[in-house]
Design brief:
The complex is a heterodimer of chains A (about 110) and B (about 270).
Chain A lengths: L18 H19 L3 H18 L8 E7 L2 E7 L14 H4 L12
Antiparallel strand pairs in A: 1-2
Chain B lengths: L3 E6 L7 H14 L4 E5 L7 H4 L10 H5 L5 H4 L1 E2 L6 E4 L12 H12 L4 E5 L6 H7 L4 E6 L3 H16 L6 E7 L1 H5 L6 H8 L3 E6 L4 H7 L10 H13 L9 H4 L3 H8 L4
Parallel strand pairs in B: 1-5, 1-6, 2-4, 2-5, 6-7, 7-8
Antiparallel strand pairs in B: 3-4
Helix pairs in contact in B: 1-11, 5-6
Classes of the chains: A alpha+beta (about 110), B alpha/beta (about 270).
C-alpha cells in the first residue's frame, strides 16, 4: 500500500500478516472481472478449453502450464494468455558451454 | 451560469446515500451556496427525516411532475439555512410516477435559481436510478469498504459509462482507520485500484452520525465530528477547491488502542 492514500495511515507494518482485507480484494477482483464482461466462471472454463484446443492443432502446447485469465487494466478488461510450447529436442547441445563462456545476462538457461 | 446537478447514488442500499446528500447540502449551504435537495426515492421517502423537515411537507416531487402544484410550492425551506431547500419524494407512489425526462425538465426549471441541485438516488439500478442520473452533471458514488458495496459501485460506474455519463467520483463512507491498519478492512487504495475512479472523499465511521439522524441535525454542523469534517471537505472539493485528505491516523480508534500500539501489542 504505497499509493497517495497509504500515507494517511502511516507506515505499513513489516509483518507477514495479510489480514482479511487481502481476501476481500482478491475476491472483488475476481468478481468484477467476470461482472464486467458478463462471463460466468463456467463459460470462461469452456472458452479456455476451446482456445487451447485450437492452438494445439498447430503447435505442441504444455497443457499443464497454460494460463488464460481475465485481467483488468484501469477500467478495461483484457484476456491474457500464457501458453508455453513444448521444447523441441535440440540435437547438439554442448553442456560445457555454460562453464567455458563468460556469463551473458541476456541468456537464460532455457535458451537453446 | 446555472446550477450544477449532482446525483448521489450507490447501487447497494444502506451505504449512506441519504446521509451524504443531507450533509453535503448542509455543508454547501453553510459556505454560502444556494442548494436544493431532491429526494428521488419515490415510495421510500427518507431525506426529509434526515434533514428534520418531515413535519413541513405539503407537496412532493410527484405533485410537481403531475401538475398538482407549482414547483415553488413543493420547495421546503430549511429552518437553519435560508438558502437550503428540499423537494421531498412522494411516499404513496412508486418510481414509475416520474420519468427521466420529467427529472430533466424539473432540474432545468431549478437551474437558474440555485447553485447546486443534489439528487438523492434510490438504491438499485432500475427506474429510480435512471431518473436520478438523467439530469446529472456530476455523479457521486457512495460505497462502504466491503466486497458487496464495492461490487455494486462498480456496476454503477459501468452503467454510467454505458449512458455516456462521466464515470463519477467515489465517496468511501464508514471507513474504520483502525481496521484498515489491522488489514481487516479494504483501504482507500485497494478500492481505487479496483474501481479505477477518483475518490472525492473518505468519511470515517463516526458515533455522531446516528444521533444526528435521530435529531434531524446534519452531522456536518457538529464542529468536532470527523464525519462532519469529511463532508465539509467534500463540499469544498465539489466547488473545485483543493482540500487535502484529512489524516485518518489521527481519528483512529480510542486512546487506549493507541497506547496499546505504543507498547507494541496488536
Amino acid at each position: 500500500m504505497t499509493g497517495i492514500f497509504g500515507r494517511l495511515f502511516g507506515k505499513p507494518r513489516e509483518d507477514e500478516y495479510r489480514g482479511s482485507s487481502s481476501a476481500a480484494k482478491e475476491r472483488l477482483q475476481f468478481i468484477l472481472v467476470h461482472d464486467r464482461i458478463n462471463l460466468s466462471p463456467d463459460r470462461m472454463e469452456a472458452m479456455k478449453r476451446e482456445i487451447l484446443a485450437v492452438i494445439s492443432k498447430y503447435v505442441d502446447v504444455e497443457g499443464d502450464n497454460v494460463e488464460i485469465a481475465l485481467q483488468k487494466r484501469d477500467r478495461d478488461s483484457l484476456l491474457i494468455a500464457e501458453v508455453p510450447f513444448i521444447k523441441p529436442i535440440v540435437a547438439s547441445y554442448d553442456d560445457s558451454d555454460e562453464y567455458t563462456q563468460p556469463h551473458d545476462p541476456t541468456r537464460t538457461r532455457d535458451d537453446t | 451560469m446555472g446550477a450544477k446537478v449532482v446525483t448521489i447514488t450507490s447501487g447497494k442500499g444502506g451505504v449512506g446515500k441519504t446521509t451524504t446528500t443531507a450533509n453535503l447540502g448542509a455543508a454547501l449551504a453553510k459556505i454560502g451556496q444556494k442548494v436544493v435537495l431532491i429526494d428521488a426515492d419515490i415510495g421510500l421517502r427518507n431525506l426529509d427525516i434526515v434533514m428534520g423537515l418531515e413535519k413541513y411537507i405539503v407537496y412532493d416531487l410527484v405533485d410537481v411532475v403531475e401538475g398538482r402544484c407549482k414547483l415553488r410550492q413543493a420547495l421546503i425551506k430549511h429552518k437553519q439555512f435560508p438558502e437550503l431547500y428540499l423537494i421531498p419524494a412522494a411516499q404513496t407512489r412508486d418510481k414509475t410516477a416520474v420519468s427521466p425526462a420529467d427529472m430533466i425538465q424539473l432540474t432545468d426549471q431549478l437551474r437558474g435559481e440555485f447553485d447546486y441541485i443534489l439528487i438523492d438516488s434510490p438504491a438499485g439500478i432500475e427506474r429510480g436510478f435512471r431518473n436520478a442520473i438523467a439530469p446529472a452533471d456530476d455523479v457521486l458514488i457512495v460505497t462502504n469498504p466491503e466486497v458487496s458495496a464495492v461490487r455494486d459501485a462498480d456496476r454503477i460506474i459501468g452503467l454510467l459509462e454505458a449512458n455516456n455519463k462521466n464515470p463519477g467520483q467515489l465517496i468511501i463512507n464508514r471507513l474504520k482507520p483502525e481496521a484498515v491498519r489491522r488489514k481487516e478492512m479494504l483501504s482507500p487504495d485497494d478500492i481505487t485500484d479496483i474501481l479505477g475512479i477518483r475518490i472525492i472523499g473518505i468519511v470515517p465511521e463516526d458515533e455522531n452520525v446516528v444521533p444526528s439522524s435521530n435529531t434531524g441535525i446534519p452531522v456536518t454542523l457538529i464542529e468536532h465530528s470527523r464525519a462532519g469534517q469529511a463532508f465539509r471537505n467534500i463540499a469544498r472539493r465539489l466547488m473545485g477547491e483543493k482540500v487535502p485528505f484529512m489524516s485518518l491516523e489521527e481519528s483512529s480508534g480510542s486512546f487506549i488502542s493507541r497506547i496499546a500500539r505504543l507498547f507494541g501489542s496488536k
